[in-house]
Amino acid sequence: MVAWFPLIHNFSVFIFVLQYIVLMLYVDTYFWLDISVLQKTFSVFFST
């Protein structure tokens, strides 16, 4: 049981890091999407 603990611990850390990376990519994508939408909105607003 003790011998398995490091493997389980490393696996949980790996899953945590994987979820963190996916979350960061997701947030980053939507952040840039919001930035582009804001830029379009401001350009339309200032052009009128």
Notes on the structure:
There is one protein chain. This protein has one helix and no strands. The longest helix is centred in the middle third of the chain and has 43 residues, at 5-47. The chain has one domain. It is rod-shaped. It has 48 residues and is an all-alpha fold. The N and C termini lie far apart (70 Å). The model has no long low-confidence stretch (mean pLDDT 79). Helices cover 90% and strands 0% of the residues. Keywords: Membrane, Transmembrane, Transmembrane helix.
H and E order: H
CA gyration radius, whole angstroms: 21 Å
Mean pLDDT: 79
Percent in strands: under 5%
Distance between the termini: 70 Å
Write the layout of secondary structure elements.
Elements (H helix, E strand, L loop, with lengths): L4 H43 L1
Describe the structure concisely:
The chain has 48 residues and is an all-alpha fold.
Which tags fit this structure?
transmembrane; membrane; 48 residues; 1 helix; mainly alpha; transmembrane helix
